[in-house]
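**User:**
If convenient, please work through this fold.
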Amino acid sequence: MLPRCAIPAVFGVALTAKSQSGTAIALNYNRHMRSRIFKNGLFVVRANGYKLENGAVLVGADLAGANLMGTLLHRADFTGANCSGAFFPLALTKTKFTGANLTGAHLQRADLTGAKLIGANLTGANLSEAILIDADLTGANLTGANLTGAILKAPDIRGSKQKDAILVNANLTGVIGYNP
């Protein structure tokens, strides 16, 4: 049987993910349960203001509209996850969002240094004042993304869609593949 758990900040959201070993993980959120996420069958990740284990695996997770504010997701893996409209914390260094749906996600002031956003859909995402130093946005969809005041030092955005991206006061030092 798959473990069940809850994150109070994410009411009524079902999450399915895979552990590093490929085992499916099912998480069922409701407001009456304490916050726990399982990794490889163990309680190792907690949200809603608690420190998460480095490298939390949320591959393929459905976190649409989730509120993850106050958590630390350093080196987390959201590969292929649906994070549309989700609210993310500030600490997202070296996090993997490869192929993730981040449409309308709230990533303002997030530190995405070294993050992998390869092929991620960031349409309409709020990345204002985000730090994207050495981030990999190869093939990402940045259509209509708000990057006002963002620091984009040396990220790779080759092959990305940049139509209507808002880059007011953004630092574009050393950006690879920028097409103004």
Remarks:
- The two ends are 52 Å apart (CA to CA).
